[in-house]
Write a structure and sequence with these properties.
The protein has about 200 residues and is an all-alpha fold. It is built from ten helices and no strands. The chain has one domain: AhpD-like (Up-down Bundle), CATH 1.20.1290. It is about 65% helix and about 0% strand.
């Protein structure tokens, strides 16, 4: 497992109220049934979905050895597609009218059929993003596809665990004192990381 120095530095300013999130952010990446590349791809797609560029950069730094171009591209594609699909399908689900369900979506989604990492991994990224966005029908659909592609329920739960820790970390970072946030304006290096 890669060193998680950048993620530890990201979580360092979390207030005591978010201590659990400080610990969970790195624990979910260290202990998982998923391979390292998939773990970091799930974390990256989750950070992109949350819109936190500092967390994104920390994940990219700590996952630099395993996040190849295909994993980065699939993470971005999953976020872009789910931003569209989660709104559309959540609307259908919330309204609950059979007439809307019978109408075609007429939204282009060909990228889902042509992932660069692999079908199971891409569906897992879509599942993680859909869990963050709260689209029940999307979560159900992607979970079914992930299992049909050969991954396990343990893999699914680990991906959702990573997504939840990343989403929680985004919220916890917003609770940090303003002075701690000023450090983000400085380029990151091991020398600027405070010892624990």
């Amino acid at each position: 497992m890669s060193s998680l120095v950048a993620l530890e530095a990201y979580a360092e300013p979390f207030p005591d109220a978010a201590r659990d999130l400080r610990l969970n952010l790195t624990a979910v990446l260290r202990e998982s049934s998923l391979d390292e590349r998939t773990r970091f791809a799930v974390a990256l797609s989750s950070a992109l979905a949350c819109g936190d560029p500092v967390l994104r950069a920390a994940i990219e730094r700590d996952g630099a050895e395993v996040l190849d171009e295909a994993a980065r591209d699939d993470a971005a594609a999953a976020v872009a597609l789910m931003a569209m699909n989660n709104v559309f399908y959540r609307f259908r689900h919330m309204v609950g009218k059979p007439s809307y369900a019978a109408m075609p979506a007429r939204l282009r989604m060909q990228r889902i059929a042509k992932p660069r990492m692999g079908r199971a991994e891409f569906e897992l990224l879509c599942l993680a993003v859909s869990a963050i966005e709260g689209c029940e029908s999307c979560v159900r659909s992607h979970e079914e596809s992930v299992l049909a592609a050969g991954l396990t329920e343990e893999n699914v739960l680990d991906a959702v665990r990573i997504a939840s820790a990343v989403r929680g970390a985004c919220a916890a970072r917003g609770l940090a004192p303003a002075a701690a946030m000023q450090e983000d304006a400085q380029p990151w290096s091991p020398k600027t990381t405070k010892p624990r």
